[in-house]
Input
Amino acid sequence: KQEVTQIPAALSVPEGENLVLNCSFTDSAIYNLQWFRQDPGKGLTSLLLIQSSQREQTSGRLNASLDKSSGRSTLYIAASQPGDSATYLCAVSTNSGYALNFGKGTSLLVTP
Amino acid sequence: SAVISQKPSRDICQRGTSLTIQCQVDSQVTMMFWYRQQPGQSLTLIATANQGSEATYESGFVIDKFPISRPNLTFSTLTVSNMSPEDSSIYLCSVEGTFRGLNTEAFFGQGTRLTVV
Output
């Protein structure tokens, strides 16, 4: 069974800092990996999708990398802002059309 | 991309009652997924709902407690039956988009925040 782990569980940084969120998974035979953002009590917003054949994806201040062989992904957030405060979830799919396996998330607080 | 409308957004229910959550997608999709997110926890898959067949439930979830309907390719419902306070969670539906015939990223509804008192 695929296990997804996210480190750290919580992170507090001052505004403007660059930061890295980590995600690891036990089964490297993934179809894709997706990073989500979740605001308190809300649904999930997709941030970045990395297909298994890709090594990274970028969107604005966000960059996600994937090292499938080592079972790791990182989400890099540049020049953090208070509006980035949320929980960030990493999820992997082991096949097309299959449900996602989620990590427990990293709760990020960016202070002004 | 896919736009998912989920209703209700939140509800407070009495124990022993049932609540039906609706999920409407703006495009036809083969599979829809229902997840539960208990307080402070990550998402756990309840079941996969295919149009025209019985839903497939994950370990720990049963049809009598979480009956699912999938009448067409754009709509599904999840019912939380005979509720207890332990059912207080956020319930989310999800679909996968497709691009050139391949499944791509997953999209989620805004969730239903259920509190059972």
